[in-house]
Every structure is written in structure tokens, then in C-alpha cells.
Amino acid sequence: MGNSFDVAIIGGGINGSAIAYQLSKMGRKVIIIEKDQLACQASSAAAGMLAAQAEIEQDGPLFQLALKSQAMFSSLSSELFEYTGIDIEHVHKGMLKIAETEEMALKVKQQVTFQRKWDPTISWLDAKEIREMETSLSPSVFGGMYLPNDGHVQPEKLTQAFAKAAVNFGAEIRENTEVLSFIYEKGQITGIKTTNGVIHCEQVVVATGAWAAKLMRESGLDLRVYPVKGECFSIRTEKPLINTTIFSDKRCYLVPKRNGEIYIGATMIENTFDKKVTPGGIATIIERATQLVPQIKEAAWERVWSGIRPQTGDGLPYIGEHPRLKGLFVAAGHFRNGILLSPITGKLVADLLAGRQLDEGLLSAFHLERHKVTVS
Ligand SMILES: Cc1cc2nc3c(=O)[nH]c(=O)nc-3n(C[C@H](O)[C@H](O)[C@H](O)COP(=O)(O)OP(=O)(O)OC[C@H]3O[C@@H](n4cnc5c(N)ncnc54)[C@H](O)[C@@H]3O)c2cc1C
Questions:
Q1: What domains are there in the chain, each with its CATH number?
Q2: Are the C-beta atoms of 163 and 24 separated by less than 8 Å?
Q3: Are strands 245-248 and 95-99 parallel, antiparallel or unpaired?
Q4: Which residue among 336, 342, 344, 366 is best mutated to probe the pocket of ligand 1, counting the most ligand atoms within 8 A of its Cβ?
Q5: 42 within ligand 1 shell (Cβ under 6 A)
Q6: What is the pLDDT of residues 232-271, one digit of tens each?
Q7: CB distance 343 to ligand 1 below 6 Å
Q8: CA-to-CA distance for 105 and 100, rounded, in angstroms?
Q9: What is the C-alpha separation between 24 and 9, in angstroms, rounded?
Q10: Which helix (H) or strand (E) holds 112?
Q11: What are phi and psi of 252, to 5 degrees?
């Protein structure tokens, strides 16, 4: 086990694994260093929705990045299956963004008009049409936006597939190893200190999700990344209850997975790394979900879980190089969209490290000093 690499990636979540995959495919010598186990945090807690149009309501750098990433999933799914034999369970059965009140209906209809500029297959369904499509929706539903091209994946499998493909291209993964600090000489990264010794490398990528601010403070940069806990539960029914993903304006979603489970989430609890799942949190989502699909009350209970989303305040991830330390890069803070954004994050960060020309301005909105607070 050598200790010299071209690139050390800190964090074995979906973003670290996606970056490792792209870099090792380019022939770079890469190591992923993970404090615990691969995909043990947000990247296994996510519902796996690829909800660019339902989550992001206005045009801008994040929306454009999300659309580009969403478009990568079909080919990525076959590519990763070919390299690893792992099926990332890409389901392509569409999404319904529900309007539960007349007021919400007005807002969702405006969104339909806006979204049709990018995807003319998106349409508004009234109360009758929407219940013809999903017969178990509550009669109280007003209507909703139908996104036939939307889909979802199994996020833990996608993370494992990225990581396994990276290993097949020569990457190494070191679990149960925490990165403590950076080593640099004359403003250039030369390595990192970990709980299992020093690793020498030319470039470092911090992909530590909600934990990015703590590590980056070591480098004199104050990133505004903070945790937002999300609690979820899942159920099973004898016959499929829904076919499409049901999404209600950030209050609640139901995602019918390929294995027959329906994932239902999620709470939004700010500023805690404590992953305990509370009866109060789950009760809130049950109440919201039964307002949308009353029959879930009769379903078989499956499990509960939680995860920590990396929020940045403006909802944009940090993707870029440290302004004063050459060779130190960050890809963190993907908040509610880290699964959706993982293919493009992997590709852009790998291109950035390789010094390849990127689209003019593509990453400028995500730069590391946009909040302009530095510490010494
Ligand atoms: C309930 C819930 C539902 C979600 N649903 C969706 C969804 O439907 N669609 C979507 O696109 N996104 C969703 N998300 C968001 C998505 O899960 C995250 O944005 C994404 O997983 C972040 O991935 P990451 O690799 O950046 O971070 P993480 O998965 O959190 O990985 C970071 C890793 O870094 C490791 N680490 C931290 N510090 C160190 C250190 N010092 N040394 C070594 N390792 C370290 C951690 O152990 C961890 O494994 C959801 C999130 C939650 C919680």
C-alpha cells in the first residue's frame, strides 16, 4: 500500500466517488479517503430523485448545471453497469408536482409555462386528469405538473458503482481513515495528514459534504456549509400504489423504488449533525403523505432513516480551487440535489484538475469565496 498519489479525494460519498471515477478513467493515480465507510452519510440517505425541474424553480447556474447532469443519467447507467455489473436502478416513470390548494395551483401552472421552454413534454394536469393517472391520489388534490421525463436512481448503488468503476481503473479506497489537515509548501499542496499517516499528492479534493467547513477552516477559508437533517421512512404495498414520483413543493415526496419500497420524506432540521430519527419528525411526514395518498395508512411499514444534507445558504454547491493554495479543490455543499448533480460534478472537477478548458463561466457561480468571509 503506497502513500503517493496524483490526487487524494477526501470523502467517500457520491461526489467523491464520481470525481474518483472520472479522474481514474483519465489515467490519474487516485485515492479516496473516507472517515467511516463509503456512502455512509447523505449519499445513502437520499431518495435519489433527479428532480431538476421540480426542485429548482428559476433559471440560473444551478438549474443549467442540474439539467446537464440530469441528461447524463441514461448513458451513465449503462456505462457503470458495463464497468461494474451494478444496476443503479434508474427508473424513468416521471414525476407529478402536486398542487394541494388553488393558490399552489396558480404557482405550479406558472412553473409549467417556465419549464416547457426546456421540455415541451411537461404539462399541467387538472384534478380529474391527475387522478386518472394516479388513482390513489387524494380527491382533495387540485392538479399538478406532469414531468414525463423525470426519474430517480438508487443513490447508494450509484455511489458504490462510481467507486467500484474507479477501483477498476486503478483507484484505491481507504476507509476508516479521517483526514486531519493539509500539508503545503510555498502555497502548493503536497499532501494530507490522516489518522493513519501522511499521504503525498499533487492535488486534493475536499468532497466531505456537510463536514466541508470544518476541514476547510484548516486552510484559512471559511466556507458557509451547514447541516440540514432529513428524516424519511418507507412502506411496501401488495400492489403498486403509485407509478410516478409524487412531489409536493418541498413539504413531502413519495418515490416508488424498483424493489417495491416507496420512500417517503423528508424533514428539514437545520444545524444538527445528530442523525437520530424522532417520532415527531416521522409523524409530520406521515401526516403530509397521507394528505396526498391516504392509502399509505394501510401499507406495510418497512424502515426509517435519516441523513445530513450539506446546505450553503444560497443553495449552490462550492465547486472550485482554493484561491491561495494551489492544488486544493472543493466539491461540496450540494444540499438537496447531490445525487442529481453527481455526474456533472465528477466530470467538471476532473476536467478542472486536469487543466482542461471548461465552458466559459460554467463554474463561476459556485466559486469558494462567493460569501467573502476569510479567516486567518
Ligand atoms: C433525506 C435526504 C434526501 C435526499 N434526497 C435527494 C434526492 O432525492 N435527490 C438528490 O439529488 N439529492 C438528495 N439529497 C441530497 C444528497 O443526498 C446530498 O446532496 C449528497 O449525498 C451529498 O453527497 P456528498 O458526497 O457531497 O456528501 P456525503 O454523502 O455526506 O459524503 C461525505 C463523506 O465525507 C466523509 N468525511 C467527512 N469528513 C471527513 C474527513 N475529515 N476525512 C475523511 N472523510 C470525511 C463522510 O464520512 C462522508 O462519507 C437528499 C439528502 C437527504 C439527507
A1: 4-57+155-224+314-366 (3.50.50.60), 91-150+226-312 (3.30.9.10)
A2: no
A3: parallel
A4: 336
A5: yes
A6: 999 999 999 999 999 997 679 999 999 999 999 999 999 9
A7: no
A8: 7
A9: 11
A10: helix 102-115
A11: -170, 145
Give the pLDDT confidence of 22-62 residue by residue, as tens digits.
999 999 999 999 999 999 999 999 999 999 988 888 899 99
Nearest Cα residue to atom 2 of ligand 1: 46
Does ligand 1 have an atom closer than 6 angstroms to the CB of 66?
Answer: no
What are 316-342's pLDDT values in tens digits?
Answer: 999 999 999 999 999 999 999 999 999
Given a cut of 50, the residues of the chain with pLDDT beneath it are: 373-374, 376
Is the Cβ atom of 122 under 6 angstroms away from ligand 1?
A: no
**Cell 401499507 identifies what position?**
299
Per-residue confidence (pLDDT) for residue 57, from 0 to 100: 85
Mutate to test the pocket of ligand 1, among 43, 69, 253 (most ligand atoms within 8 A of CB): 43
Residue 333, ligand 1, Cβ within 6 A: no
